[in-house]
Amino acid sequence: ALEHALSKFQPTPPARRQASPDIAVSVQELTEAIENGELINYYQPKVTLHSGVIKGVETLVRWQHPSKGMIMPMQFIALAEKHGLVDALTLRVLDMALAACRRWHDGGLKLSVAVNLSARSLANTHLADDIVRRVQASGVDPHLLVMEITESAVMDDLGASLATLARLRLKGIGLSIDDYGTGFSSMQQLSRVPFTELKIDRAFVDGVSEKPQLRVILESAVAMARKLQITSVAEGVETLEDWRLLQALGCDLGQGYFVARPMPGPDLVGWLKQNSAR
Ligand code: C2E
Ligand code: CA
Ligand code: CA
Ligand code: CA
């Protein structure tokens, strides 16, 4: 059954023309880009490691610059954070993700959609209310939305983070610990936050089949998720060997180039059709 599931995955088309990694962008440009709809969402599948069934997608923003090409989030998220634009960016990305989720749902696809939340946003107590309002207006079941927050962001100021995160969770929105393993939180700390998912950073996943020392970290992360009774997700699954190993460790979901690269919403529907046709 696994061989069958794995053989389903088709290579996704190469990325579109990307801007050079050291391209300079200004705050002014970014402000306008957020307002003018130059940001677009890519989506990357999260599938069960056991059987390869798609459970949801992670939203990854890109800036489709009219002349500079496609700019990756690493090139503008920090700028948005520094200049107080990141909440506006998050809400834009969220609106698009909710609209996509709604379309998929109307087409018979019940997929959860994850949106990344910046560390900077955690202290803004109004943001949780804004998010909840938008989910309600969209008609999307809040249980289908997951907010991903990096481990270090939450632990840096647990008190402030808790206020925002608990508000979201109370409405049914899922909460994922992103980049798990890069911070130093204890199980006791993690258990204070109502997380529903633990995402193991790709630094511990990529190449694990060749590096036994990573295996120990993965094992303990999966065990921790199980104790907390939350879903474990491995990001950055790039090879069949990594997949097999994670599956043997009992990790629930996998995400990575081995399954599919992030892709625009319309391509996702095509990818799903192609991969469920067999
Ligand atoms: P992240 O949340 O850890 O997202 C995973 C990153 O790993 C994505 O990079 C994804 O394209 C990449 N990736 C996925 N599978 C593989 C794989 O198999 N191998 C390798 N080498 N990489 C893989 P991306 O799209 O460039 O995003 C980078 C970071 O930018 C994200 O890291 C996230 O922290 C941030 N980001 C992206 N979208 C948003 C957003 O809407 N809001 C905020 N605040 N941050 C965002
Ligand atoms: Ca993420
Ligand atoms: Ca990561
Ligand atoms: Ca690799």
From TrEMBL:
Keywords: Phosphoprotein. One of its GO terms (biological process) is phosphorelay signal transduction system. Residues 23-276 form the EAL domain. The keyword Phosphoprotein applies. It comes from the Bacteria. One of its GO terms (molecular function) is cyclic-guanylate-specific phosphodiesterase activity. The keyword Phosphoprotein applies. This is Phytochrome-like protein cph2. The chain holds residues 123 to 400 of 408 of the full protein.
